[in-house]
Amino acid sequence: MSAVFPSISATRRAIQKWIQRVLANDPPRAKSLVVTIFGDSIQPYGGSIRLKGLIDLLAPFGLNQRLVRTSVFRLVQERWLQPKKYGRESSYQLTESGKRRFALAYGKIYRRQTAEWNGRWTLILLPANGTTPQLRTRLRRELEWQGLRQLAPNLLAHPQIDRAGLEEVLDRLNAGRKVAACQVVNSADLGTPNLSDLVKGLWDLSAVIDGYGGFLRRCSTLRRLSDGPDVIAPQEWFMIRTLLIHAFRRIVLHDPLLPIELLPGPWIGAEAYTFVSKIYWQSLSGSEAHLSALLGSTPGEVKRAGMQLRKRFRRR
Fold first, then answer.
1. What is the pLDDT of residue 106?
2. Residue 207 falls within a domain, yes or no?
3. Which of 16, 88, 91, 172 could be joined to 50 by an S-S link, Cβ 3.0–4.6 Å?
C-alpha cells in the first residue's frame, strides 16, 4: 500500500518518498510493527490501547484490520499482550511478562552504557547435573541472544552483561537454581593470556557492523529534516519516528553491546545511536500530537507520557 501525501517543499517531498520507499522495499512485518508501536508509543500512555485505535495507528503503514487482529491474537498467545473488554470493544495491554521484556529492550534501544569497563567478566556455567540437554540448549540460545558467547562447552561469557536481562531469562526458564554464575577479573600477574584476547574472536561483529551501515544508508534522507522550517504533518512525523525505531530495534537487539574497550574504533554503533537520537527528538513533538489526538488522551496523560519520553536518549 502506498501512502499519498500533499507536496509542500523539496525536503518534505523527499521525506514522503522515503516513507513510501521503506514501505515498498522493506515492509515491516505486522506482528513486529505492533511490538514496536506498543513499546515506543503506547507504553508511555499506560501500555493499553483499544483495538480500533491500534488499527487506526497502523493503517498508514499499509496494515489492514485482518493483519492487525491476527497479529494481536498471536501476541496474546505468546503472552506479550492480554485483552480487556469495554462493552463490545476490546483493548489490549502488556502482560507482566511483556512489561519485563519491553523493559529489557528499552535499555538496549534508548540508553548506552558510558561507564568505563572495570575489566570483569561474567561467566555462566550450565552444569550437566540437574539440567537436561533440552534445557541447556534452550538456555544457551537465550543467553546468546543476550550477548553471551560460549567460551567452552556449557560455559558462556560476557564482559558487561545486563543483569536484569540475565535474571529474566533464568526466571522465565525456571533455571535460576540450575546454573552457576561468577565474575572474574583479568590478571596479567599470573602470566596467563589476557581473557580479553582469548574471547574477542567469539563475537563476529561483521553482521552487526553491516547492519548499522545499511541502516544509516537507508535512513540518510532523514538527515534533511534539519534543513529549513519545513512543515511536516503529525502523521508523517509519527511514521518517521516509528519506522526509524523499528529499523534500529531490529539491529541493536542483535548487538552484543560489548564495552567500547573491546570494539573496533570508531564504533559505527555509536554513530547510529547519535543519529537515531537526533531524528527521534526532531520527530517527537509532531508524532506525539498525532498519537495523543488519535488516542483521545487527556492533558494529564500527555504530561505523564512526556515525562517518560524525556528520559529516552539521555534527555532529562
1. 85
2. yes
3. 91
Residue 56: inside a domain:
no
State yes or no: pLDDT of 34 exceeds 70. yes
Domain boundaries, position 166: 120-185
What local confidence, expressed as pLDDT, does residue 89 receive?
80
225 and 273: one domain? yes
| Burial track 212-225 (b if 16+ CB lie within 10 A, e otherwise) | beebbebbebbeeb
Contact in structure between 169 and 158 (CB atoms under 8 Å): no
Q: Which of 45-59, 149-163, 189-203 has the highest mean pLDDT?
A: 45-59
pLDDT of 98 higher than 70? yes
- Give the helix/strand (H/E) hosting 122: strand 120-125
Cβ atoms 41, 289 nearer than 8 A: no
- Residue 17 has a pLDDT of 94
Residue for grid cell 503529525: 234
**Average pLDDT for the chain:** 86
Helix axis angle, 51-58 to 30-37, nearest 10°: 110
- Residue 218 located in a structural domain: yes
- Would residue 102 count as lying in a domain? no
Give kind and range of the element (H or E) at residue 120: strand 120-125
This model's pTM is above 0.70: yes
- Domain total of the chain: 2
The more confident residue out of 230 and 272 is 272
Same domain, 134 and 207: no
Q: What is the rounded CA–CA span in Å between residue 142 and residue 137?
A: 9
Residue 286's nearest CA partner among 223, 231, 219, 212 is 231
